[in-house]
Amino acid sequence: MSSWLLELAWTGERLEHRLLLGEEGGRISRLEPLGDEPVPRGARIVPGLTIPGLVNAHSHCFHRALRGTGQHPVPGRSDFWSWREAMYGLAGRLTPESYFRLARATYGEMALAGITTVGEFHYLHHGEGGSPYPGPAMEEAVIEAAREAGIRLTLLDTCYLRPGFAGGRLEGPAARFSDGDALSWRRRVDRLPEPRGVRLGAAIHSVRALDQEAIRVVGGWARERGAPLHLHLSEQLAENRDCQAATGLSPTELVASLGVLGEETTAVHGIHLRRHDVELLGSSGTMVCVCPTTERDLADGICPALELERAGSGLCLGSDSQAVIDLFEEARAVELDQRLRRHRRGLHPPEALLRAATSGGARSLGWDAGELRVGKLADFISLDLESPRLAGPGEEELAARVVYSAHPADVRQVVVGGQLVVDEGEHLWLGRVGGLLAQVLEELSP
User: Fold this and answer.
1) pLDDT computed for residue 212 by the predictor
2) Half-sphere exposure (CA, 13 Å, Cβ side) for 111?
3) Helix crossing, 433-444 with 96-112: angle to 10°?
4) From CA 126, how far away is CA 334, in angstroms rounded?
5) Which residue has the higher pLDDT, 434 or 35?
6) What percent of the chain has pLDDT above 90?
């Protein structure tokens, strides 16, 4: 049991002064304004602005090793597909041990950036040539990495079976992704551990990577378990073109016909959508995860987030390829990219963008978090309002200052389940995260 005096807090709905937060069993047990009363004995005073913990709904943690090198395209080949070749090369070099060290350091970087929960879209399952490990070595590496970094994890175990609509087997490093068929994927996933602080979910890599029956199997597993279901959707124009040629349907129409859409499902990217696609996603309550820093880095395009929101889809955010790990940047990019596209400003209220970065992500990943409210998980972070980016008078536009100006360097404390993970910008559990990253990235360099 612990208590915290939040000098100023955004609860997910409104600002509160001198808010006393009590935690018991990892959840918020008490939340009330203290007014002029003295601080209770033993309560930790949290200066600055406290907000719910940020939720990163879409991560490929091993892509962190491509930062810098992956952003620099090969001369004459500067699209998503050339980047994917570099990613495959990295995937071929990872072992369970190096994957653990890379994931732990990457999740440590996330914690320093105020992220308290991550959704790992995980498809690096097997050894060289696709040979299974004796046990779930790669999955356990991710789970243990998140535990040591102090953040919650939804492991979105991904089914990835073929290179494209023409069928065939995944080869080279990509063979490590495949279980051979969807029933084998299901049997493997049914044996995975789900320890405290971890939720197990499912992911359909994409409509090009699974046949229709496999999509049904993965979707059915998620429905039976009441588990989150995620899928890459219409990230690339080539995916739309190939899906239309193979099935006569857009990717969204295809997964809708297979019963995959719904309130427990999150479509990632959703960039190249027709009006009917937007209507299908919105009317089914399917969430959409927008990953602007990756989408612009890979020249994918701009998600029609405003149309999706108006149609009924909730929004959440992801760092995806780890081009940067900064959910404040992802949040503001949703609005700023729409401004470039529409030549208008003020399309998404700042409070709505903050909710996408907190409660929206928590809903997508199946966690009872993302708000400062009694009964919710005690996950929250504090921001330094005296930093050069956030300093300024008045509170009326504070949400806008946070969305449009905050940076991971402004995160001072990170609390997950009532436990202090980051204090004064230092990771209490891992120490120097930059040193951990430098060491494992040096080992993994080609």
Assistant:
1) 98
2) 36
3) 150
4) 35
5) 434
6) 91
Residue 434, pLDDT > 90, answer: yes
Q: What are the CA-CA distances from residue 209 to residues 150, 169, 174, 203, 278 (Å)?
A: 33, 10, 11, 11, 22
Give kind and range of the element (H or E) at residue 439: helix 433-444
Q: How far is CA 349 from CA 56, 281, 332, 353, 364, in A?
A: 20, 22, 10, 7, 20
CB 54 within 8 A of CB 113: yes
Tracing tokens 């000098």 back to the chain, one arrives at 7
Of 8, 72, 13, 58, the closest CA to residue 34 belongs to 8
Residue 1, judged by CB atoms within 10 A of its CB (0-12, 13-18, 19+), counts as: exposed
Supply 344's token pair: 């208008």
Measured distance CA(246)–CA(254) in Å, rounded: 11
- pLDDT per residue as tens digits for the range 155-212: 999 999 999 999 999 999 999 999 999 999 999 999 999 999 999 999 999 999 999 9
pLDDT above 60: residue 77: no
DSSP per-residue codes, 302-338: ---HHHHHHHT--EEE--BTTS---HHHHHHHHHHHH
Radius of gyration of the chain (CA): 21
Confidence of residue 68 (pLDDT cuts 50, 70, 90): confident
Please tell me the distance from the alpha carbon of residue 8 to that of residue 24, in angstroms, as a whole number.
21
- The whole-number pLDDT of residue 24 equals 97
The percent of the chain in helix, strand and coil, each rounded to the nearest 5, is: 40, 25, 35
Which of the residues are catalytic? 269, 320
Task: Give the whole-angstrom CA distance, residue 160 versus residue 157.
Answer: 10
Query: SS3 for 9?
Result: strand
Contact (CB, 8 A) for 5 and 20: yes
Amino acid, single-letter form, for residue 44:
R
Q: Which structural domains are found in the chain, ordered by start?
A: 2-51+374-433 (2.30.40.10), 54-365 (3.20.20.140)
Half-sphere exposure of 25 (CA within 13 A, CB side): 5
CA distance 418 to 431: 20
